[in-house]
Amino acid sequence: MATLAFNAIATVTLTGLFPTRKNPQAGSLTTQLQRREVPLNLLKPAIRDPSTCKGNGFVDMPPRPPSKQPPPGNAHLHASLGEYLGHGHSSIVFDLRDVQLSSAPSDVVVPPLVVKVARINRVTSLLREAWFYDDMECIQGVSIPRCYGYFETEVPEDSDVRRQLLAVAKKYRPEDDGEENLVLSRDQMMGPLHPLLAERCQRRDIIAVTILEKLGPQLPLGQELSEETKEDLESMFEDMAHLCINNVEDIRWENILQAPDTSSSLPSLPSPFTQKVHRWRAIDFELAIKINLSVPHCQLEHYCGLGGVYDHVESWYEEEYSWPEEESESDEDWLESRD
Ligand SMILES: Nc1ncnc2c1ncn2[C@@H]1O[C@H](COP(=O)(O)OP(=O)(O)OP(=O)(O)O)[C@@H](O)[C@H]1O
Description:
Layout: E1 2-3, E2 9-17, E3 29-35, E4 75-87, E5 91-102, E6 108-109, E7 113-118, H1 123-135, E8 147-154, H2 160-172, H3 182-188, H4 195-200, E9 206-213, H5 227-242, E10 245-246, E11 256-258, E12 280-282, E13 289-290, H6 295-314, H7 329-338
Bound molecules: adenosine-5'-triphosphate.
Adenosine-5'-triphosphate is lined by residues 85-91, 93, 114, 116, 145, 212-215, 250, 254-255, 257, 283-284, 286.
């Protein structure tokens, strides 16, 4: 049996756009999306000259490790959107059901998958994140989920699919409209944006998704974390530090999920840096930066982020936490009327 290469899927057809918790079957709408390769120079790493920063922990930036994937495939993935799994500033994430793969060898194993759908004004966040997935290919299935590609399609401004996405996005995060994308402003401080990012941040007629391996739940709240779990989490972020990826701004409880462990999941692989097999995985690289920090210095920053996660887990009590919000009836009625 062969496993699905990260670049095997060329096109994706998604049906049932977009369900809600109260109406998981909602939407007879369908769309087809095409893989878009993410340019290597999409993002500029932050490079400090090690000779002028002696003792500050800067190193020579290692080149991106060469991809171990075969030549790009031509497979077509067909799936319907299942349960809503979560959302953030940039996206809404759904389980994928009834997954079928065509134009691929029949013995290819497809693990349980999710689709991360960018909010219409956050396509650049997903594109940026897809660059980090490419950059961290060697730790996909190790300390981050396997990523099967970034896909896009153009949708006319007055299309039902676009309207449905806007309505669902608004439902899960009503305050999103018009929010400034601070990450891009930060990228701009390092020089002009890559033309693709500059163009995509003006567009409001693109649906963009990534297809990711489905992970398990977050760390259980309200109990002390074992030393073993803490060591595992620290080692997981050490893998990123070896690739000069600093993700301290997005180390949050929401962004650490259990490694998949169902009978249909793919096994977790040993770290190419520490040979450890992790029980947890990190997600969400919208705010990550590639910077020539040494591993210990990057790890120091990651420890700060993890300290916040440990506090959150250990001092949690239910009344404080009420996420996600319940859907309001009137919005739900509106959505149902669109089906
Ligand atoms: N691979 C996955 N498997 C299972 N659930 C996932 C997966 N990826 C994301 N989720 C769920 O979706 C939620 C939102 O995902 P994520 O944090 O990646 O979104 P985001 O929009 O990039 O967040 P933000 O921009 O606010 O940092 C997660 O907290 C988690 O509950």
